[in-house]
Amino acid sequence: MCLGIPMQVKKINGFVATCEAKGVERDISLFMMQDIPVEVGDYVMIHVGYAIQKISEQEAHSAWELFDEILAKTD
């Protein structure tokens, strides 16, 4: 099973973006997004350290809500 995590781009340095989700920051590769302009403030779906697509803020928040529900039921 594959899992993508939505994150917001906080800064960009070449093909590396610092992204944040729910207070956690990670450096993410933008290599797979070369043909799609990504800017600070955008939301991207992350899979194994790579941004794989741009998403809307609403899509990111919806995904985070679902993840929170799943985690709440596993406690």
Tally of DSSP helical segments: 1
CATH class: Mainly Beta
H-E string: EEEEEH
Q: In the residues, how many domains can be counted?
A: 1
**Structure classification:** alpha+beta
Strand segment count: 5
Mean pLDDT across the residues is 94
In CATH terms, what is the architecture? Roll
Spatial sequence of strands, sheet with the most strands: 3-2-1-4-5
What's the CATH topology name? Answer: SH3 type barrels
Query: Which radius of gyration do the C-alpha atoms yield?
Result: 12 Å
Describe the overall structure:
With 75 residues, the chain is an alpha+beta fold. It has a single domain, classed as SH3 type barrels (Roll), CATH 2.30.30. 24% of the residues lie in helices and 43% in strands. The protein has one helix and five strands, in the order E-E-E-E-E-H. It has a five-stranded antiparallel β-sheet with strand order 3-2-1-4-5, with helices on one face. Strand 4 (43-47) and strand 5 (50-55) form a beta hairpin. The longest helix has 18 residues, at 57-74.
